[in-house]
Amino acid sequence: MSSIGKILAILAIAYMISIATASPAIAAPYDPMEICIENCAQCKKMLGNWFDGPLCAESCIKFRGKLIPDCEDFGSIAPFLNKI
């Protein structure tokens, strides 16, 4: 085998090893409770004293993130609004 052939063989092996050992980017799993609590915090920032953030967070925990509030959807945040 010529020296060029050896170099190409080494490069090919190195390339295959690099592909085999490279791990693909793994996306974080979707956690609805985390999203729910983050949305509660966002709504509290947006609406201030009009929004009961702790009650929203308690709801996230109670329902395990199944009812995610959307700050722009009155129906989803109505239970957490204060009359100041």
Automatic annotation (TrEMBL):
Disulfide bonds join 36-60, 40-56, 43-71. Residues 1-22 form the signal peptide. Pfam families: Eclosion. GO terms for cellular component: extracellular region. Belongs to the insect eclosion hormone family. It is found in: Secreted. It comes from the Eukaryota. Neuropeptide that triggers the performance of ecdysis behaviors at the end of a molt. It triggers adult behavior patterns: larval, pupal and adult ecdysis, and plasticization during the molt. GO terms for biological process: ecdysis, chitin-based cuticle; neuropeptide signaling pathway. Keywords: Disulfide bond, Hormone, Neuropeptide, Secreted, Signal. GO terms for molecular function: ecdysis-triggering hormone activity. It comes from Leptidea sinapis. This is Eclosion hormone. The lineage of its organism: Eukaryota, Metazoa, Ecdysozoa, Arthropoda, Hexapoda.
